[in-house]
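Exam review. A common question shows you a sequence with its C-alpha cells and asks you to describe the fold in words. Practice with the pair below. Do the first one on your own.
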Amino acid sequence: MNYMVQYSSPALDLSFAALSDATRRGIIDHLGRADASITSLAEKFRMTLTGMKKHVAVLERAGLVMTEKVGRVRTCKLGQGGLAAEAQWIEAHRKLFEARFDALDQVILEMKQEQDDERTSE
C-alpha cells in the first residue's frame, strides 16, 4: 500500500495547498488584523476582483476563511477552525525530525569517538 495514500488527510491537503501560495498567506495575515471585503483585498494585493475571488474561494474551501454577503459587499474573515490541526501535524513531524537528527548526532559522535580511539591506539 502506498504510504502517502494511506496517511493522507483531505482537510490538511486543502489547508497546505491553500497556504502554499504567497498571496493567500498574505490574505490570511491581513484578515488576522481585520475583516475585509473582497474588493479591498483585490486593491491591496493589486489584482483583479476575479483573481481575488479565486484566492478567497481556495481559502474558503480549506476552511481558513469565511465570507458573508451583506447587500452587494462580500466580507471575508478568518475561519473558525484556525490552524490547530495544521499546527498539530507540524509539531508532531517537528518532533519526529528532532528525534531522528538527535539519533544521527549520536551515531556521528560515536563514529568520531571510534576514530579518536583508533588514532590514540596507533
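Now try the second one, then compare your answer with the model answer below.
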Amino acid sequence: MNFEVSRFNRHGVWAIYRFEIARAARTLVQSLLTPVLTTSLYFIVFGAAIGSRMQSTSGVQYGAFIVPGLIMLTLFTESMSNASFGIYFPKFTGTIYELLSAPISPAEIILGYVGAAASKSIILGLIILATASLFTPLTILHPLIMLAFLVLTAATFSLFGFILGIWATGWEQLSFVPMLILTPLTFLGGAFYPINILPPIWRSFSLFNPIVYLISGFRWSFYGIADVSVATSATVMLGAFALCVGTVSWIFRTGYRLKN
C-alpha cells in the first residue's frame, strides 16, 4: 500500500468516513441503544445478582471487576460488525467497483472505513464506561493507557472486520465468526473471572486465547491487576494489529475477492 503523504486524498477519506458515520446515525437505536441496554442487563444479572453474593475478586468489587470485560466484549463485537458490514454492502450492491476505480488508494479506503468503524466503537465504549459508572464505583489508575488499549483494540478488530467483510460471500458469513468464534473466546477470556481461579489445565489452555491478553491489559489500566503482564498484553495487541495490516495489504495487492 502507498502511504505517500503529498498525494494523500483527504477528501476521499473524509467522504467514506462521513458516509459510514451517517449510516450509524440513521440506525441510532441499533448502533447505540441496544449495546447500552445489553450491558445494563449484564450488570443487573452478573453485577447485582451474582456480585451481591461475592465479597470481591482479586481485591476488587465484582461489579467493578467485570466492567473492563464488558467494555471489551462490546468493543470486539461492534468494531467487527461495523467494519464488516461497511465494506460488504458495497460488494453486495456492486458499488465496490466504483470505489476501486476512483482516484483513491487502498490505504485511503482502509483509513476511511476502518477509521469510521473504530470511531463508532470507541464512542460506544466510552458510553458503556459512563453507563457502568452508574451501577458501580470505578477507578481508572492509568487513563492514558486505558485509552491506548481502547483505541488499539478498536482499530485492530475494525481491521479484522474489514477482512471479514471482504472474505464473506453471504450475509450469514458476517455473523458466523462473531457468533461462533469471537463470543465463545470472549466468555472464556476472563471477562467475568480471573483465570487464576481455573484448574491448572484450563488455565494453561486459556493462555492460548488472545482475548485473555486484551482483557487482562485493559483491566490492568483500571485496577492495576492482570492475569498476564501488561507488556505481554501490549505485544499481543500490536502483533494482532500488524497481522491485520499485513493481511489487508495482501488483499489489495492480489485483489482477493475484490476484482471478481
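Model answer, second protein: Residues 1 and 236 are 24 Å apart (CA to CA). The radius of gyration is 19 Å. Full marks require stating both points clearly.
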